[in-house]
Amino acid sequence: MTGVQYPGAAGQFNTEPRTSGVDEKLKNELSKQGIFTTTLQELYNWGRTNSIWPLNFGLACCAIEMIATTMARYDMARFGAEVFRPSPRQADLMIVAGTVTKKMAPLVVRLYNQMPEPKYVISMGACAISGGPFKQGYNVLKGIDRYIPVDLYIPGCPPRPEALIDAFMELQKRIDEQPLTGANRPRHLNVGEPSEFPVPRFGAHDLEPAKNPNLWKPPLVQISQAGTDEPRND
Amino acid sequence: MNLETIKSEIEANVPGCRLEIVANPSPSGQHSLRTGAEHAVAVAVYLRDAEDLRFDFCSNVTGIDWPSRELSEKVKVRKLVDGVEQEGEEVRKTTLSGTLEVVYHLFSIEKKHGPITLRMRTIDRDAGVHLPSLTPVWRSAELQEREIFDLFGVVFDGHPDLRRLLMWPGFTDHPMRRDYVDPDDYEYEPTAHDEVLRRAQQHRSEADGEHPGKAGER
Predict the structure, then answer these.
(1) Which of A103, A202, A221 sits opposite B189 (nearest CB)?
(2) Model pLDDT for residues B129-186, shown as the tens digit of each residue
(3) Domain count along chain A
(4) A205 at the B interface (CB within 8 A)?
(5) Which domain, by its residues, includes A152?
(6) For residue B206, what pLDDT is reported?
(7) CATH number for the domain including A140?
(8) Which of A51, A150, B99, B114 is most buried, judging by how many CB atoms fall within 10 Å of its CB?
(9) Strand pairing report for B84-96 and B69-81
(10) Using one digit for the tens of pLDDT, what is the confidence trace for A142-154?
(11) Has residue A108 been placed in a domain?
């Protein structure tokens, strides 16, 4: 099972092969002579890759799997994520684990806004991705990516701890490969990119606005295919 | 436990109270008692405190929405046609006004009997949605009455803390009512059909209207 990038995603990664400033062969040769060479980019990414502190925050049954992932059997501490921070000010990663109700959605967005850059979001489980089995419910948000940019989606209901670890390792890989300069540099090194997103308000009938149009475009259904299905007569 | 005897017992002991037995035609035959709003608290207190009844536990409170509906029934009438009396049929239409109903399920832990089902109805679905709260009688009804207030819009007079439970305070709708229109906030359905297909087509045409150049690409 892999952390899959969802079609409508507004995540911050562009998977482009890493270009290091140092010639790999020369680097190998130097290391054989006891000289360690590196670049600022490698050092910086090495640091932030291995100390991703998740926000201590769960919404429903997916949170139980998230807790299991941190415990001794699966032990997320192996990847530098052992300290779940109870304050968004100290957290790097928000794992949206569980059903986001419309009553909770503004608080999730506010928590995200309070996290310092660089920050990442994993949307864990069917509910956080799309509303899941509660998609047609009156009180359920149809995916947290309507309000905040999601970097990785984990399918499952709930996903196994292995799936969360896989997504976490995928996130580490992507952070490690991210160039610090150029068009694909991280969002926090790009002044033009927003780090906070509008918090929806409670309206009379729904959240206002119902989505962030800059962030999320609805994946539209292919009507030509959907409409041609003949009704079954059994 | 015979519902008839309970009914006559309550009617004898609560002055002015008239109850109605709502028959359940299913094999389970769980008939229920319907009480008027004005005597509901007295009936509830009697059910809880009477020596032989002791319904001390309210396990469940729920609501039912009855929108106004038209009943048409065929009635045989005698008519004078060309001076001759003939028997004919006539369709008579009656409109039942809408109402909200609240249902309480009661058990007796002390006497180990139950359940008994207690119902009451509001006057209508707009302004007359007031019913007496039975939370002072059974404390376990508190959150469930709040939920009914939230989702059906029944106002419980005498409830100690009547606030919305699942939705936020500024929300004006009642999602469990049958005429609730939910916001159009999901666009994608892999196997769209019926209502969902109609919505999907609408979203598609709106999106094509916004980006007419891209319509061919999809």
Answers:
(1) A221
(2) 999 999 999 999 999 999 999 999 999 999 999 999 999 998 999 999 998 888 887 7
(3) 1
(4) yes
(5) 24-228
(6) 78
(7) 3.40.50.12280
(8) A150
(9) antiparallel
(10) 889 899 999 999 9
(11) yes
Does residue A18 sit within a domain? no
Query: Count of CB atoms within 10 A of residue A104's CB?
Result: 17
Above 80 in pLDDT, residue B196?
no
**A132 found inside a domain:** yes
The residue with tokens 């996130």 is: A171
**Residue B215 in this model has a pLDDT that exceeds 70:** no
Closest by Cβ to B192, choosing from A142, A202, A221: A221
Give one DSSP letter per residue of A108-139, joined into a string.
Answer: HHHHHHHSPSS-EEEEEHHHHHH-GGGTT-TT
Q: Please report the domains of chain B, with CATH numbers, ordered by start residue.
A: 3-65+100-176 (3.30.460.80), 183-213 (no CATH)
**Band (A223; pLDDT cuts 50, 70, 90):** low
Distance CA B70, CA B197 (A): 30
Instruction: For residue A211, give both structure tokens.
Output: 């989505």
B124–chain A Cβ distance below 8 A for any pair: no
Chains A–B, number of C-beta pairs less than 8 Å apart: 75
The structure tokens 């109270």 sit at B17
List all residues 6 or more positions away from A107 whose beta carbon is below 8 Å from its beta carbon: none
Confidence band, pLDDT 50/70/90 cuts, at residue B217: very low
| A8 belongs to a structural domain | no
Q: What angle do CA A62, A63, A69 make, to 5 degrees?
A: 95
Is the confidence at residue B218, as pLDDT, over 50? Answer: no
Contacts of B169 in chain A (CB under 8 A): 202
